[in-house]
Amino acid sequence: MASISLRNVVKRYGHGAKANPVIHGVNAEIADGEFVVIVGPSGCGKSTLLRMVAGLEEISGGEIAIADRVVNQVEPADRDIAMVFQNYALYPHMSVFENMAYGLKIRKLPPEQIRARVDKAAGILELGHLLERRPRELSGGQRQRVAMGRAIVRDPQVFLFDEPLSNLDAKLRVQTRLEIQKLHRELGVTSLFVTHDQVEAMTLAQRIVVMNAGRMEQFGTPEEVYGRPATTFVASFIGSPAMNLLKGRAEADAAGARFVIGDVALPLPHPAPRTGDLILGLRPEHALPHDGQAVAADAADIASWPLRVEMVEMLGAERLVYGRLGDAAFTLRIDGTDTPPRPGDVVLLKAPAERLHWFDAATGQRVD
């Protein structure tokens, strides 16, 4: 096993004035045995970053180190990594056993050692009864497990996963996520996993790298990224439905604190970190409807906002209520068993002070 260090990693395509920068100085320290997920929208550079760690893309600047060894000029085969791709990349004419054993045969390992490694990996992934089948006889989930088994038998220092669940249906993705979690607990190998699915990122990762347009927006635990997003991009990308982000002006005087959106002034339980133009964030599940009576003994810590309902969406265990606070769109999440409001109704919302997030209106950076 090994740590991974990314030190001001830069990637450009082309040279000189026409060079196109796609990765802009990424820095991250990934601990030995850690499972880190790189997440972001399509085109943000997450797969490019992974391929640079693998040695499949040259880096234009900075350093990549695996187990304290700088690998900028090291060939992929000599980096002691194993990669699992989105498209499985199995040999159709080979059996499952032959696919898993192929890399070991190339390295000229003894047959008994190859058999032992393949049997061990097949046992971990519950593939023992499928070793004689061809890929065409397997389901998508089974093929992905074979691809993971082929990586496991190499006994690498680092696993690299490039969107390995994208070709699976929703149910298989959930099952395979559980298998990957169990695999990491059992093997404890340092792992980098790329995905555009923030649910995969939140459920799999010990820490998450959130990428946007070639830049690392935040690097932290799922709890940190969800509970204290560093930017409005992270706030809107992590979480489903996304955090409500309201643009307005924070004010405070003897009459109290408020957040003004157009012609509507929303009372605040406490003054914002500063006055002036800000973005206020509140997750849909953290706004709580109430009946207009005195909020509670802790009313000083709760603001009451009027939400005019436009639409209600039933999602089984929960409902999403879409409406407006003044001119700003707002989404509220309520329990599926609650009596839903009707379009045109005004619902009073409790906004607890500890659930409010503040961001700079110009830069999108978190303000504390």
Question: How would you describe what is shown here?
Answer:
The chain has eight helices and 20 strands. With 368 residues, it is α+β, with helices and mostly antiparallel strands. It has two domains: 4-230, P-loop containing nucleotide triphosphate hydrolases (Rossmann fold), CATH 3.40.50; 244-360, OB fold (Dihydrolipoamide Acetyltransferase, E2P).
Structural descriptors:
368 residues; 8 helices; 5-stranded antiparallel beta sheet; single chain; 2 domains; 23% helix; elongated; 6-stranded mixed beta sheet; Rossmann fold; 20 strands; OB fold (Dihydrolipoamide Acetyltransferase, E2P); alpha+beta
Topology, pairings included?
Elements: E1 4-13, E2 20-30, E3 35-39, H1 46-54, E4 61-66, E5 69-70, E6 81-84, H2 96-106, H3 111-125, H4 140-152, E7 158-162, H5 170-187, E8 190-195, H6 198-204, E9 207-212, E10 215-220, H7 222-227, H8 232-237, E11 244-253, E12 256-261, E13 264-267, E14 276-282, E15 288-290, E16 302-314, E17 318-325, E18 328-335, E19 346-352, E20 357-360
Helix pairs in contact: 2-3, 2-4, 3-4
